């Protein structure tokens, strides 16, 4: 494994910019034409509220609500696209659907709107997946997410703030964790270079480990004396017949 897996592309910037731009465009439509998009949010355990599973991440109550969600989305979507490019679109798509459905099941009887559920999906996925890979760059990314967004964990509990949908946050965090388990990243697995890194490694069979006793002290291996092999003469079970042939060519002819 090497850092060649992380390749920059224009989508690392284009994806988060387009996504956040679309959120602001929807909010502009709401203000410009006086639309009430709140009724398109998630209304738990109602048939009409199912539409909010798809639409709620793109609806925001006011400019502060939209602004507070925009900056984390820009950062987290860029990180997701760069470090997990193969899984990024699936994490976004399924993250919206699954977290929205969980919110529809456990949410309070009111409309739940905003992209904060998706933010918790991204935080959960990036954090837990980075720890699972045990790859130093992804672990560092997970720690960075904790440092920057660690305070968000308090908003998955009820009664922290009445106007905040803690159900949507909790659903997003659960979804992010589940997706981190579902989507495997074999390209980030540590390559085994040494024999002792194999899970079936037996130290008793290793020549180096045999030089240490059970207390960890260095010991000399017993000297094994090798017996000299005595080479035996050639023998065969098959009979060998020899025939003497006169060399007439070299014999001198008798004188007359």
The total of beta strands comes to: 0
Residue fraction in strands? under 5%
Mean pLDDT across residues: 85
Distance between the termini: 98 Å
Shape descriptor reads elongated
Could you say which structural class the secondary elements and strand pairing correspond to? mainly alpha
> What Rg do the Cα atoms give?
37 Å
Helix content: 40-55%
Contiguous uncertain segments of 5+ residues: none
Number of DSSP helical runs: 7
- Note the main sheet: none
Core attributes:
256 residues; 45% helix; 7 helices; 0% strand; mainly alpha
How would you portray this structure in words?
The protein has helices at residues 11-32, 52-55, 63-83, 88-106, 116-133, 136-149, 166-182. It is an all-alpha fold and 256 residues long. The protein is 45% helix and 0% strand. It contains seven helices and no strands.
Chain-wise SSE layout:
Layout: H1 11-32, H2 52-55, H3 63-83, H4 88-106, H5 116-133, H6 136-149, H7 166-182
Short description:
The protein is built from 7 helices and no strands.
